Amino acid sequence: MMTAKNKSKEHSKNNAQTLTVAIEKGENEQRRLAEAQFSPDVLNTLTTQTFTKTLFGEIDFTQAVAVMKEKTEKIIAGDLNELESTLTSQVVSLNAIFNTLARKAAHSEFLNQMEANMRLALKAQAQCARTVEVLAAIKNPPIVYAKQANIAAGHQQINNGNPSIPHAPARKTKNSSNELLNEDSHAVLDTGRAVETGGINQKVATVEIFDGR
Asked: Rounded to an integer, what distance in angstroms lies between the CA atom of residue 58 and that of residue 77?
């Protein structure tokens, strides 16, 4: 007979593998579930849990997706603090991998073992250097220099050189783009039906998550 304590554990385990999706009023349930299924936040959370469950065990999947979404929204909004922290930590990790494999290569008994370990060590070193470059570009973005662009309709005279040297007046060119702006091209663009705002959440659908085991 299952006790109340065991029931609670079983219920918690089942919830950890379930994604709760809110369905708003008038929204197609199947489409909403499909959007959740193909969401980058959902897919990457599932992949992350696959690799980290041995360390942390089962974590509520709905809450994990919410955390992933918060992290991505911060970066999209321009807050790169966590991204910089991630890259910096990876530089340290890749450097540790390089040194571990390099030492392993130095103590290899056979030549093929030494070559394999050294090749992997140099790959880790190259990836470490690449990560440092990306991090440096984030901290100090490169300056882009653009040449002056002078665009005007009708007569124009641009003196970018010595002002004492006279220049011939610019020829008046026929602006074909202006001729296309007749009365017909000012017609109102029909964007289709008006967009209706969603109402309060009416129901909740669940998606069972399978890890392939």
From this structure: 30
Strand positions, DSSP E, the chain: 18-24, 201-208
CB atoms within 10 A of CB 43: 14
Question: Under DSSP, is residue 27 helix (H, G, I), strand (E, B) or coil?
Answer: coil
Token pair 């997706």: residue: 65
Question: Predicted confidence band at 171 (pLDDT cuts at 50, 70, 90)?
Answer: low
Phi, psi values for residue 22, rounded to 5°? -80, 135
CA distance 144 to 137: 13
Residue recorded with tokens 């193909």: 38
Global model pTM greater than 0.70: no
Q: How many CB atoms lie within 10 A of CB 1?
A: 3
